[in-house]
Amino acid sequence: MSSVQELFKVTFWGVRGSIPCPGAETVRYGGNTPCVEMQVGGKRLIFDGGTGLRVLGQSLMSQLPVECHVFFTHSHWDHIQGFPFFTPAFVPGNRFNIYGAVAPNGATIKQRHHDQMLHPNFPVPLQVMQADLKFYNIEPGKTLHLDSVAIDSAKLNHPGEAVGYRVSWRGRSVAYVTDTEHFPDRLDPNVVGLAQDADVLIIDAAYTDEEYHSPKTSKVGWGHSTWQEAVKVAKAAKVKKLVIFHHDPLHNDEFLDHIGEQVAAQFPNSTLAQEGKSIVLLPEDDKPTQNDSETVPVSA
């Protein structure tokens, strides 16, 4: 069996889009907004800081001190609202490297986190966080290397801009592509590029085609895609496993079950992201472990 250092583990802490939606009808898939953790090559990477980041933070409090690399796709509320409640950031001795692209208005990722924690938005300023916080501006299209781990990025089609990521390590890869809206006449080359031959594609599929094109409540221009378009991307990019992500807050567990069945009929190796669930990438000669993780054998 591979050691922890030899695993590529993806854990979902928040899988919803737009706004948290806790309640009896969303308990199985979860109601927290986006936060995905990747443990890879001895590094801990976090993607987005929605309300799921608060839950992840509580689990990290038993592992102090911690060092993480936190990547933001953009700074719409549902992707940053968990950051002020990320308890490990208030603990001296912890270290967080925080990455994000400069916004169209010129605001850096540091400026945007600083602003959301000022009055009248929040009672505690960013400066109260006692961990070592370092902020980095990334340029989409360039590759960032963290020792043996490579992180590629590309711009996505989203109001105010967003960035998708691809994490590669020892021949394995996971693409995290949210928030993005498909084009009406072609697949987005940036999305296909990030997803190309990926072992796992985590992709924004907030709507169904019927919801997206509804004459009464059209979602065209809202910056999100559909599960039907996600399947097209997965097939075109020859993805090994498709993960539907950024569930609309109106989609309860029963509705998502139905979507999952439809997705599986078109792309058998697929799943819908669920809070608390993990995907582990292993070499082909390793045997799956019996736990809450879904194990995906891949070539090393």
Would you summarize the structure shown here?
By secondary structure, the chain is of the alpha/beta class.
CATH superfamily: Ribonuclease Z/Hydroxyacylglutathione hydrolase-like
Q: How does the overall form come out from the CA principal axes? A: globular
Straight-line N-to-C gap? 14 Å
Mean pLDDT over all positions: 93
What's the helical proportion of residues? 10-25%
Structure description:
The chain is an alpha/beta fold and 300 residues long. The protein has one domain: Ribonuclease Z/Hydroxyacylglutathione hydrolase-like (Metallo-beta-lactamase, Chain A), CATH 3.60.15.10. 19% of the residues lie in helices and 29% in strands. The chain contains 7 helices and 15 strands. Strands 6-5-4-3-2-1-14-15 form an 8-stranded mixed sheet. Strands 7-8-9-10-11-12-13 form a 7-stranded mixed sheet. It starts with 7 loop residues before the first strand and ends with a strand. Residues 284-292 and 295-300 have low confidence and may be disordered.
